[in-house]
TrEMBL record:
PANTHER family assigned: PHENYLALANINE--TRNA LIGASE, MITOCHONDRIAL, PHENYLALANYL-TRNA SYNTHETASE
Organism: Helicobacter apodemus
Name of the gene encoding the protein in the UniProt record: pheS
GO molecular function: ATP binding; magnesium ion binding; phenylalanine-tRNA ligase activity; tRNA binding
Cofactor notes: Binds 2 magnesium ions per tetramer.
Binding site residues for Mg(2+): E247
Name of the protein in question: Phenylalanine--tRNA ligase alpha subunit
InterPro entries: aa-tRNA-synth_II (IPR006195), aa-tRNA-synth_II/BPL/LPL (IPR045864), Phe-tRNA-synth_IIc_asu (IPR004529), Phe-tRNA_ligase_II_N (IPR004188), Phe_tRNA_ligase_alpha1_bac (IPR022911), Phenylalanyl-tRNA_Synthase (IPR002319), tRNA-bd_arm (IPR010978)
Keyword ATP-binding annotated: yes
Amino acid sequence: MEEIFLKIEKAKNTAELEEIRILVLGKKGSLTAKFAELKNCEASVKKTLAKELNTLKMDFERALANKKEWLSMQELEEKIKQEKIDVSLFNTSNLRGASHPIMLMLDKIVGYFESMNFAVKMGPLVEDDFHNFEALNIPSYHPARDMQDTFYFKDNKLLRTHTSPVQIHTMESQKPPIRMICPGNVFRCDYDLTHTPMFHQVEGLVVEEGKDFVSFANLKFILEDFLKYIFGEVKVRFRSSFFPFTEPSAEVDMSCIFCRGKGCRVCSHTGWLEVLGCGSVDDNVFKAVGYENVSGYAFGLGVERFAMLAFNVPDLRSFFESDLRILEQFK
Ligand code: PHE
């Protein structure tokens, strides 16, 4: 047994220890054999021998356990020595995220209209032809369809080109009065300095019962107030325009926030920036949803354009390139 204890002492790893254990206490182990011989012994020796064997077994097991603990500590120390901790490594736990500039602007826009008692409505991104075009007074033959480069699927389905279909869904499911905005992303097949195939819009709709209840003056008031809330003191003008779903229609310009109307590169030296489309809701739209004897106004804007102007970002595409050097400036 002496040499066994010596072996334990010399063992270099836990695998060697296990070999020793099997040698002694395994099925064919030396100590196991001695225990087996006990039954052939005479009763007088049996008791003392059994006691001796048990003590031996306990000593052996203790020696094994001690050595095992020592070895595993040794192994751990070795492992720690080999694993270098690179303290110069960048620590990410202190990185704080921030809202994307588009979301910052979206929140600000939505915040304004919520404070003016507008409900916020959402709708599907995949629409049918009826909700995206037909119900908005844009029949299939109408040249106005070319204004919006549409991504089409099969079976009359398409990616919505504006959030106006949410207004149609809302009017289909509830009666006036309606006072809502619909923020969300929209899709058009277009890509350059000022266009990306996906962008964000906020459109608004107000409908009341009665032919003359909602007037263009109401629309003018709210949009002027809204633009001043977002951009500060600006002059606002309404320019007559055309949209199939509104009549009369207007485009809204505000005085250039960079040159204060004097004329610069951003406003193409006109002193004005075009920021909104709007108008009184066309009767054909009300007809499409089964409304009668109502009046209303609608407006729409591109969130990216607002963010570009408010944060002075010259290239729209930089909003979508996930460049942290740009995004971090909006913390
Ligand atoms: N739906 C229009 C667009 O996507 C925006 C708009 C809405 C214009 C309401 C006028 C009135 O271009």
